[in-house]
């Protein structure tokens, strides 16, 4: 199996296969240069990414789903589904926190669901990219639960 590349040619981080499949289930249909494919003889969890895709897929592979960048998926969640991924820097520990929430829930509901308890239980990440990836995954899970 080929090693999957993590970044596109512009240095933007690409989503994992799990996130790409979740986005596909949620209705992500924005054409991307990168995609995941699956061979007829290889199960889904071993899908390969094509190095270069121009709309043609070889005979032994079939299209599985688009593979967007994390920032593209973050923008799609925000603009199409009103799910905001908020990344914050925790200065006291020098790490990154993340919160994904539905922007239509209103301030009162936000405060009820995002209290200090959530803040204290929040997973923190060493890098901004790790936090953003976790936030986008959390946003996709919110969207999946609402469907």
Tags for this entry?
147 residues; alpha+beta; three-stranded antiparallel beta sheet; two-stranded antiparallel sheet
Explain what the structure shows.
It is a single chain. Residues 41-55 have low confidence and may be disordered. This protein is 36% helix and 20% strand. It is built from five helices and five strands, in the order H-E-E-E-H-E-E-H-H-H. The two termini are 34 Å apart. It has a domain at 82-146. The strands form two sheets. The protein has a three-stranded antiparallel β-sheet. Strands 4-5 form a two-stranded antiparallel sheet. The radius of gyration is 17 Å and the shape is globular.
For the biggest sheet, the summary is:
3 strands, antiparallel
Uncertain parts: 41-55
Number of strands: 5
Q: Considering DSSP H and I runs of 4 or more, what fraction of the residues is helical?
A: 25-40%
Distance between the termini: 34 Å
For the largest sheet, list the strands in their spatial order: 2-1-3
Broad structural category: alpha+beta
What is the mean pLDDT? 80
Number of helices: 5
Strand percent estimate: 15-25%
Shape category: globular
How are the secondary structure elements laid out?
Layout: H1 17-25, E1 35-39, E2 48-49, E3 61-66, H2 70-81, E4 83-90, E5 95-102, H3 107-113, H4 116-121, H5 128-146
Antiparallel strand pairs: 1-2, 1-3, 4-5
Short description:
The chain has a domain at 82-146. Helix content is 36%, strand content 20%.
């Amino acid at each position: 199996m080929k090693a999957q590349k993590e970044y596109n040619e512009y240095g933007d981080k690409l989503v994992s296969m799990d996130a790409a499949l979740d986005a596909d289930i949620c209705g992500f249909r924005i054409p991307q240069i990168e995609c995941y494919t699956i061979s007829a003889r290889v199960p889904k969890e071993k899908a390969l990414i094509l190095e270069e895709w121009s709309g043609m897929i070889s005979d032994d592979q079939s299209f599985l789903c688009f593979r967007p960048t994390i920032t593209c998926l973050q923008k799609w969640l925000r603009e199409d589904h009103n799910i905001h991924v908020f990344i914050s820097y925790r200065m006291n520990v020098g790490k990154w926190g993340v919160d994904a929430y539905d922007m239509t829930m209103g301030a009162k509901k936000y405060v009820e669901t995002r209290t200090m308890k959530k803040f204290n239980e929040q997973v923190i990440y060493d890098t901004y990219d790790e936090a953003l990836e976790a936030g986008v995954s959390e946003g996709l899970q919110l969207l999946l639960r609402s469907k």
